[in-house]
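Task card 7
Instruction: Convert sequence to structure tokens.
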Amino acid sequence: MSVVTVRTGGDRSGDASVAPLAGVRLALYAGENDPDPIAEDWARCTSDADGDCSFTVPYTASGQINEGERFWVGQEPDGVPPGWFVNPSLRTGKGSGSGSVESDYRFRTPALEEGNTYSSLSDFMRSTAWSAVPYVASTGIWQQSRVNPGLPAACGLDVAVVLDLSASVGSALPQLKAATDQLTDTLTGTPSRLALFSFDRNSPSTGTANHPDLVPVSTGAGANAFKDLYADWALGSGTNWDQGLNAVAQAGPVYDLVIVLTDGNPTRFSKPYSGDGTNTHLADVEGGIFAANAVKAKGSRVVAVGVGNGVEGISGINLKAISGQEAFDPANPAPETADYYQTTDFAAAGEALRNMALTQCEGTLSVIKQLVPGETEGEDVTGAAPAGAGWQFGATTTTAGVGGLPDTQTTVDDGTGGVVFTPTFPTGAADADITVTETQQPGYELVTQNAKNAVCTNLDNGQPVEVTNTGAASAPAFTVDVPRLAAVSCIVHNRPNPTPTPTPTDPTPTPTPTPTPTDPTPTPTDPTPTDLPGGYGDDGGHGDEGGYGERLAHAGDSSGPLLLSAAAAMTTAAMALIRWRLRRRGSSILRSRWNTEPSPN
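Output:
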């Protein structure tokens, strides 16, 4: 008896690791091209929680029927758990696209000997013989693909764009950027956000940076800010789908849609990168599959767009393996469900991306709220920026049979300032009139444009859409026609109400305070009685210079020698405030101050 064990994998779980996948069903075949496996129970296995699928092969002892036999390990046509699909073959050959081979995904075991165990990670399947034709070197981990999640049925998406900056793009780099521009422009005017990734043999590509944080492109300013991120990007070398997609999988945000724009098959995988950088091996594609699985596991839809000769023909099976099973069919276009594209050039790719985005918004009305700086005047909207959360809009219609309205939508804190209304059209209806009302927030006023309450555009053709003002000054509104087969976007501006400038007036005279009958609070410049010049300052105490100090009064005491005037005093429960004056004999007062002494009361 001998054991043949195969490691099965699902999602990329790290830069170079793959999580195991249970429920994968494999079989042993007598020949490489045999359609059916060996009809024995020992010739089938199902992977366990550790991803191990093991065959226990009997009769491998000396002289027995399976001694020295070499079987082929393959996957049954439906040999995956729910939510996955089988890739029975992958494209190998030159990275440039020439010499393409559709290589069956089967691997031959070593000659079996009694008592031995043979692992796909060390004894067969796994290989680093990069130069061996037809380039079937593998990671030793059996691949299968997750079913591609669907797109949300909504206009306004969070999209990650993954750009191939390998050297093979060559002089078409401006067209690659133009295709990305076209996607960006199509999403402008909708509550959409974009993130950006790149790859050559690494990710990010040489001399660039990934931008996983979402950039709102609901406005022209936001779209331009996103385009600036890649405007000066240059090319690197090598093609590593694995790293490009794994960067997306490891990013914090979860994207609705991940678009991979590539002009060639992968020639590298893992991190640090492996492979020879020239040819496409099974291992290079496996790495891309594992990373794409990790992206899909987060709920993101992956769409692969292959451009040019490098990904034509049977290269489509590799694009399918990282996305899904439905190819885009120009004769029966369904961009909302197509998983991968094979286009002739980047201009065609840009058009495909545009149609993909427009299909999501067909028959919808986007309303984008922008706030204008308070220092502007009139219809000047310089510096306008998307509003935050809490701006509420309502939509109604008078068109018979239209569903989904009335409806109320409120902006959220996503940086777009946008909401979307999605009416349902009855059979035969070409369009519907939709009236949008805004709940004005305190402290803000509407800013019209050419005396209109909103600026509306047909996103399919870029043409302005007529706006009819409705509502009142306190509750402005507008009405537009929304075509069934097109998307309309309207921008509404608001500005903080100006702060009223106070009218200058003469200051109100400050009333003169009425004096109190008390004497002023003593100041530290007056001497204490013991500091009186020439002696002491007790009752009638003498000082030199012929002067004397007079104790004038306790508060409320009439018994003292009131020589000059009655003195006011302030009392507390335990102390009396005494006023002392120093006079020169027979002359005027020299100094006067208050002092304290125990209250006589």
